[in-house]
Each structure stands twice: as structure tokens, then as C-alpha cells.
Amino acid sequence: MPANTEQLDLLIIGAGPAGISAADAAAREGLNYLVVEKGLLADTIYHYPIGQTVFSTPEELELRDGALQPCREKPTREELLDHYVRFVLEHNLRINTGEAALKIERAEPEGFIVHTDRNQYRALRVLVAVGGMAHPRRLNVPGEDLPKAHHRFVESYPYVRRDALVVGGGNSAAEAALFLSEGGARTTFAIWRSDWTNRDPKMGAIKHWVRDPLARQIELGRLRLLFFKEILEISDQYVRVKRDDGEVITLVNDVVF
Ligand SMILES: Cc1cc2nc3c(=O)[nH]c(=O)nc-3n(C[C@H](O)[C@H](O)[C@H](O)COP(=O)(O)OP(=O)(O)OC[C@H]3O[C@@H](n4cnc5c(N)ncnc54)[C@H](O)[C@@H]3O)c2cc1C
Q: Is the CB of 57 within 6 Å of ligand 1?
């Protein structure tokens, strides 16, 4: 592995909003810094569903006051990506994309050596800004590795008139169920009863602007809400689910998220 002998003041791992903002601060302080990013700029946001409107308002997301000006009250995935990418280009931030940090070691007499899949760097300080989205939570059930089982929802179009099952209790699952249902998929949303009855925003309740249209889809009979205990098995044509009353049911199924 080639050794980079340049001594950095700061090596930042991850070019999400936190890493980009840290790079901006480092540049303004005149530090010799570098960001390594294993994917693309703002990779987590890049993987949001296409056309998604985010929950946060521009003031909470923008890197300079007034720099993020969405068409509506809140920005879409595309507007947010455009903001971060333009910011990096305009400020010529030093970011290597497609380079994953693998290991951090202490260096003598001070600082660290960071090993990546392309290089190794000496840095006085290392900032780990890798976010929390890299490893999806798995169900750990048979069939989860079938091509029809996904850990990320991108868009509803391929699933028009298909039997879709969404499993989860948070906003991402609720939004996926909503988009699929509105987009014409025959959608079942499997959720723990406690997650559905939770209305406390401080306890991670589904945001009301997702829940309200979701409830409308349920009322209209376009979306089926299934209180479940456990997903037992995913197969090519079915999913076996234990409901929260203990009964095991088999759902006809084309795709699972
Ligand atoms: C659908 C969806 C909607 C969301 N909406 C909102 C919202 O409205 N408001 C909000 O505040 N949050 C929202 N979030 C959460 C939001 O994405 C995170 O809060 C935000 O991305 C965190 O920024 P970050 O820079 O800390 O981490 P991330 O954006 O996750 O960035 C971390 C980066 O580190 C990189 N990385 C990881 N490991 C390595 C490695 N070993 N080497 C190099 N690079 C590495 C990753 O590729 C990634 O680019 C949403 C999430 C989802 C999934």
C-alpha cells in the first residue's frame, strides 16, 4: 500500500453533512485537512428515495445562511444533494470520494495513521463522521438475501400492482409504505402495535405529515396495516408472518422492504 508521507492536521472520515461542514470549518481555519469518503458526496442522502422531501427545514440543513432555497417549505433529496455538491465544488473542499477508511492506529510520537483502501495517511487529529446509516438493521430470517428483499427503498414505480410488504416502525418504513401505496402497489405495512400507537414525537413516533396521509390510505382500503410480532420467512412468492395475536399467516408477496 502506498504511504502518504504528508502530515495532515486533520483527517475527516465521511463526507455527509457533518464531514462536509467539518471540512469547511477546517478550510476556514487554514488547516491542512483531507476528507476520505467511501461512497459519493453526501452518500446517505444520495440513497434517500428519489424525490423525497426531507423533514428538516433549510435553516437546519444549509451550510451557509440562505444558501439552500427549496421550491417548497422543505427541500427534496435532489435540492439537498445539489446544495452539498455545489458547496463542495465552490469551496474546492479537499474530498476523496470512493476511498474507505479501514483502520486507525496511534502514531509515534503523536497523532494517528489512517489506513484506507487506497492509501495511508498521517494526521494529528482524526474526525470520524461516518453517520449511522451504513449498516441496515436486518430481520435475520430465512429468505432475507433473496433479490426481492431490500434494505433500502428507492422508488415505487417498479411495484405498481405488485404485492409489497414494508416491515418497520420508523419514518423511513412509514414513508416507503406511503409512497408504495400512493404509487399503486398493493401494500402491507407490518409494524409493531406499540410503534403505531406511539404518538410521542420525543419517543420516535412517526411524523404526523407521514402518518396522516398513511392513515388516509388505510381508510381508503389501499394500504393494509398489519400488527405483527415476527417475520418468520421470506420465500419467492410468500412471506410468513406471526401476527401479534400469535396467529401465523402467509402473505402473497412480490417484494419486501
Ligand atoms: C429517508 C431518510 C430521510 C431523512 N431525513 C432527515 C431529515 O429530514 N433531517 C435530518 O436531520 N436527518 C434526516 N435523515 C437522517 C440523515 O440522513 C442523517 O441525520 C444525516 O445524513 C447525518 O449526517 P452525517 O454526516 O452525520 O452522516 P451521513 O450523512 O450518514 O454521512 C456519513 C458518511 O460517511 C461515509 N462513511 C461511512 N463509513 C466510512 C468509512 N469507513 N470510510 C469512509 N467513509 C465512510 C458514508 O458513506 C457517508 O457518506 C434521514 C434519513 C433517511 C434515511
A: no
